[in-house]
Give the backbone structure.
Amino acid sequence: MFRFYDAVERWSEIEPHLADEEFQRVLTEDFNKLTLGRWGVRFPTPDKPWPGDWEDFGGEARTEDDGPWLGPEGEYRKLVKNLACFFLVNCNLRLATLVLPGRKWRIVLSRFHSTVYDGHDLLFDLTGLALYGDPDLAWEYAFGMGRQLPVGAYFPVKFAPPYERKPYRRGVR
């Protein structure tokens, strides 16, 4: 049985760390690999300073897999973008180590999801909290046939492939 770090009730413990130099470096470097790779636009922009501002950017059609978001509303959602957990997991790791430094945080990931885990029962997973609302489901997606990185190790993020709008053709699936 797992539990999420309560980013809604404890936002005041997270917010001061958003200015942390290492957090900002990791967020910018990793999320830029999504925005620059996918759309050719650098992150952040003046009108899109947070990952949540990029939801529905670039003309990507939303699918049944995109929602509904089952987790609670809250300020933490500005650090969440659907289908971008691999580009945000390192900044979640940095925040976890700043907010709860006494724990042995590590990244756990599969090809479906990535999360930050304390080695016991706590997930610091803002994406999982927003999208799934269920820590056991987030763990299942991340750990099922997945792997654990060493304590404190970042995941090597690669550039996202460019987004290509595919023309709709009748009768073709």
In short: The two ends are 40 Å apart (CA to CA). The longest strand covers residues 106-109.
